[in-house]
Design a protein that fits this description.
BacA/B, Polymer-forming cytoskeletal protein, 0% helix, 12 strands, mainly beta, 12-stranded parallel sheet, globular
Length: 104
């Protein structure tokens, strides 16, 4: 179970910081810093820089991403921004535009 769930009808603008996993089903604009994992579900929109242990993208993310472990772009997911992570997977049907730095 996720520590925080941002529901599909919710829009948050500003800076979000969490020690636990965050699941985004709605909209986040600003900055997202999480010690655990971040999951962006299909239909969700994140217009923010994201720093997390891991990131799973099923929706749309616009912003730079830094993950200490991995970034997974799922089918239907879209990421526009630079990625800094030890591992990056891009599923068939996902979209990515940006630069990748895997020197973590």
């Amino acid at each position: 179970m996720a520590g925080t769930i941002i529901g599909s009808g919710i829009t948050i603008e500003g800076e979000i910081t969490s020690d636990e996993e965050v699941v985004v089903a709605g909209t986040v604009r600003g900055k997202l810093s999480v010690d655990g994992g971040v999951t962006v579900e299909g239909g969700a929109v994140v217009e923010a820089d994201v720093a997390a242990a891991s990131l799973s993208v099923g929706g749309h993310v616009t912003g730079n991403v830094s993950a200490s472990d991995r970034v997974d772009l799922l089918t239907g997911g879209r990421l526009v921004g630079d990625v800094k992570a030890a591992r990056l997977t891009i599923a068939d049907g996902a979209s990515f535009k940006g630069n990748v730095d895997m020197d973590v």
